[in-house]
């Protein structure tokens, strides 16, 4: 559903008395429920661009004297959505707060990838119930990916009636309207669009920090891996125009940002939905390569869409970093077929070979799911052998859990939990072993570190990341924060490096 369809859906034929009588009860609340069936449809409707976002005069000053609090769960895309919502809140006159205790509006920006993430949100809603009782004028909202699921909205309606607002990932630009409805309505305001073909530009943002920034280059995913809810919650693939992205990156460079990460659920499918130009992620990266910003990354890529042109462009180096997150999910071709990943073990290994041939020092990280339905011991061993062959720098590892509404949820979840846990433990042992080996290779070397701030564990120690995304802790003056400095690694740990700054400029391999 786009803006035009939304307006049409709200029109009621006043001359149809029977229709008005039968359906009037549904208009007691602002209720636009999500539908996973609708969300799965992928038509060829035009992606509409809206460059005219602004705060309507009727909403100006809505937040004067009020504070907002947003708790974010999940991926970088959710974090960036929070930055946009914070920008809208500030434009409405609200002030940010770090505590729910003095907030006038509390939003939970949710993730739907793992069952555990959903449980955390429902637990938090339970905790906030007493706060809502103490302060009835408090607005409590749930947004993000969970809000796009029918089962979640139904559960909130049934179990958490103290929630005031539920809105989806496609409705963020409607936040002023949703807040206004919530203030006026005595019922829960639910506005979730199941389909979306729009790209909204010029949304205000309050970026977290002034050193690293996220830039959305596309939205949605059309891959429909059988275990994944994202294509339903984030909608169809739709790319921002390259000129908009390039302008945003140039603006960030002018503001002094040192690193940007291009974001997309399936970032290297960028541009495939354009019908007027032939332009992909490789073309975009080639343009961004010319901008005076030290570091450019992207995440998350899909092996199926990682083409030769992108590899060729990344091999130019410079500000295009050769740390690549490339989720494999399984090392078994049979399991990959069940997952509908659209590649097999051999094709993935061939892609890795191409990347390493073009960029011999490239570091690869990955995602792996263990205990997918029907996964045999032999198939799991194939995952271990692929991991050994590629020698990933690190991996995010997960036990499979069914997500309601996905094809895999209809499969028999026939791997006992104790087997899943045992496989995860074996996989993690291998991940730790190879990570420790890779980190050991850094000892005695000098690396370039983008200093982000004080270490979480020791304020006297600074922390930052290398070009290959390795966390380095070292002592240096606070004036180094926000700069890229040379650090000699003196000790390697499994996941972090300890170092000391070096004064002279050193050529880094």
TrEMBL record:
One of its GO terms (cellular component) is cytosol. Residues 66-184 form the MTTase N-terminal domain. GO terms for molecular function: 4 iron, 4 sulfur cluster binding; metal ion binding; tRNA-2-methylthio-N(6)-dimethylallyladenosine(37) synthase activity. Gene3D superfamilies: Methylthiotransferase, N-terminal domain, tm_1862 like domain. Pfam families: Radical_SAM, TRAM, UPF0004. Residues 207-437 form the Radical SAM core domain. Catalyzes the methylthiolation of N6-(dimethylallyl)adenosine (i(6)A), leading to the formation of 2-methylthio-N6-(dimethylallyl)adenosine (ms(2)i(6)A) at position 37 in tRNAs that read codons beginning with uridine. PANTHER family: CDK5 REGULATORY SUBUNIT-ASSOCIATED PROTEIN 1, MITOCHONDRIAL TRNA METHYLTHIOTRANSFERASE CDK5RAP1. This is tRNA-2-methylthio-N(6)-dimethylallyladenosine synthase. It comes from Metabacillus arenae. The gene is miaB.
């Amino acid at each position: 559903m786009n803006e035009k369809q939304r307006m049409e859906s709200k029109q009621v034929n006043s001359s149809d008395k029977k229709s008005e009588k039968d359906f009037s009860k549904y208009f007691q609340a602002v209720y636009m429920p999500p539908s996973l069936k609708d969300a799965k449809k992928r038509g060829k409707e035009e992606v509409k661009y809206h460059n005219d976002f602004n705060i309507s005069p009727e909403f100006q000053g809505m937040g004067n004297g009020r504070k907002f609090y947003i708790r974010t769960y999940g991926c970088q895309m959710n974090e960036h959505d929070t930055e946009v919502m914070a920008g809208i809140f500030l434009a409405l006159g609200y002030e940010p707060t770090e505590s729910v205790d003095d907030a006038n509006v509390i939003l939970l920006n949710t993730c739907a990838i793992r069952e555990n993430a959903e449980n955390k949100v429902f637990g938090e809603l339970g905790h906030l119930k007493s706060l809502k009782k103490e302060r009835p004028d408090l607005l409590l909202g749930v947004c993000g990916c969970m809000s796009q699921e029918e089962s979640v909205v139904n559960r909130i309606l049934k179990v958490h009636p103290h929630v005031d607002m539920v809105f989806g990932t496609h409705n963020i630009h409607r936040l002023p309207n949703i807040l206004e409805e919530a203030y006026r309505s005595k019922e829960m305001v639910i506005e979730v669009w199941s389909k979306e073909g729009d790209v909204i530009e010029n949304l205000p943002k309050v970026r977290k920090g002034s050193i690293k920034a996220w830039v959305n280059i596309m939205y949605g995913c059309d891959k429909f891996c059988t275990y994944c809810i994202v294509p339903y919650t984030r909608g169809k693939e739709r790319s921002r125009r390259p000129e908009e992205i390039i302008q945003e990156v140039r603006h960030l460079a002018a503001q002094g940002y040192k690193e940007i990460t291009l974001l997309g659920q399936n970032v290297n499918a960028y541009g495939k939905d354009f019908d007027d130009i032939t332009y992909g992620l490789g073309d975009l990266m080639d343009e961004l390569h010319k901008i005076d910003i030290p570091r450019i990354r992207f995440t998350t890529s899909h092996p199926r869409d990682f083409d030769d042109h992108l590899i060729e462009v990344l091999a130019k180096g410079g500000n295009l970093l050769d740390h690549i997150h490339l989720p494999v999910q399984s090392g078994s071709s049979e399991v990959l077929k069940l997952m509908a990943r659209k590649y097999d073990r051999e094709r993935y290994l061939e892609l890795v070979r191409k990347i390493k041939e073009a960029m011999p020092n490239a570091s690869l990280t990955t995602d792996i799911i263990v205990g997918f339905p029907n996964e045999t011991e032999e198939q799991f061993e194939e995952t271990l052998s692929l991991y050994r062959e590629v020698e990933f720098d690190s991996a995010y590892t997960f036990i499979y859990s069914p997500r309601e509404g996905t094809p895999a949820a209809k499969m028999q979840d026939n791997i006992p939990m104790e087997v899943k846990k045992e496989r995860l433990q074996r996989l993690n042992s291998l991940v730790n072993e190879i990570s420790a080996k890779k980190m050991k290779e850094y000892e005695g070397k000098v690396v370039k570190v983008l200093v982000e701030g004080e270490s979480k564990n020791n304020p006297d120690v600074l922390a930052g990341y290398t070009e290959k995304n390795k966390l380095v802790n070292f002592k240096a003056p606070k004036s180094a924060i926000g700069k890229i400095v040379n650090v000699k690694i003196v000790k390697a740990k499994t996941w972090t490096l300890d170092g000391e700054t070096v004064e002279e400029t050193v050529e880094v391999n």
